[in-house]
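Hi U.,

Before I forget, here's the chain from the pilot set. I'm dumping it here mostly so it's searchable later in email.
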Amino acid sequence: MKRFEQNKPGFLIGIFVVLLLLIPFVNRGQDSIDHEGFEQGLLENIHRQVFEYPWNDAAFFPGKPELAIRQTMKRELKAAKEDAYNPDKFEAYFSVLNNLAAPDKAIFVKSFYFYQAEIKSELAKAGLSEDLQYLPATLSAFNVEAKSSFKRAGAWQLTHFQAVLNGLQINKLVDERLNVSKATRAAVQELKKDETIFDHPKKAMLAFVFGKTEIKNLCRRAGGDKCSVNELLEVAPKEMTDFMAAYQATAAFLSQNKFVPEQELPKIAEAKVRLQTHFDQISAVLPISTDELRFFNPQFPYSIIPEQASITLPEKLKQDFLFLQDSIYNGVDSTLFDVVAQKIEYPPAPNRQYVGEKVKDLEIEGKTKIKYTIKSGDVLGFIAEDYDVRVADLKYWNNIYDERKIQAGKTLDIFIDDENADYYRNLQQETAKKEEQKTVVPDFASATLPGIVVPESAKKVEHIVKSGESPYVIAQKYDGVTPEKILEWNSVSDARKIQIGQKLIIYVQ
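Structure:
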């Protein structure tokens, strides 16, 4: 005991040093792109494709990879490393890619070249840098089902807001972020807007991934809007500099390793369905598997095609589909349209005796209870979507019998997974900070809105929102109008909160 007392200072110092060494591993964020995180995410995304159709089918898009010769790779790698912002991180990420197992490396290169022509074409039409073709490979390795903890999805990892504002459809049965062709067009539109703001392709790319506000703030810290990318990265957080190194390593790897196809890409065509249809109904009549249908139509995650939606098929099957539609629609099994959702088994709610009485002290194992304050304009559907829960859950947890009678200022109990508790608490804090900022309430009776410059020749129009209309759809009806302007003119911060019957002010040239 005396010996321990004598060595106590040294013992405590030893523990302190060990804790310091462990801090980087404890504090590592879920979405930060560190060396190990990048490797793990990349391998997971590639492995999912190795064992799934069509990448596990040698007959699909046949060809052979042309991997870089060692000497050529060394020479080109040296040049790429010199251009990299962080040469050491660049080399580490490149090593991860170059040391992939042969089947994984072949799939990664093959999937990139499968989508490359379409991506390059869309970038060229928008006048954007060809180098941006490597962005989806960095974000998802072209795993169309990739999803992040920040609710990004698809090959381009689009947010819900980026997708909807650029014309994509997202609802219970459809998520067009998962369709590479549709997501590419939306991503290119978003990147074009970002480049217009920041006047540089790499700044536009960083704004696409990390948000416009973040890049604007970093530009101010780096000396102003005209700062260089390197100056911006000097003041950027670690996850952003790591991402840039990962992107540069991916671009270097894919530019050195090629895939030579033995035949052209499969020709496809679109056809519209008259009635709600399941993939199983189509595969039962036409010579196409459900795996093939999922590959061509990943935007239907439950294999259900809504009424009047378009489906993509091999071109040779389009006429057969149109001719045999009645046979397809008649093969209905009602169980095909049951969308399976994970249900929570609730314990009996204590003191739950009267309709409308608040559920007291409800606890659910594995869930954390947080409080949500209802704001003006809130509906349960939006709240449920923001917190990734069901409307039925919200009604049960809070004993709500009529969701139309929820009141601003009241609180709701929301149960979320324990591991996501910190994320949603931070989300609430960020939302509260934004609401604390003073905002100007627009006078819709006046000719113009405060703080907005409207040309003298502009005509003020009132648009009544109809079912199915989003800011993007509405903007298409008026020349020179953009979805962003509609939101700005009407002081709307979230496009999802626009409701049927709502009056929107639009200024038309």
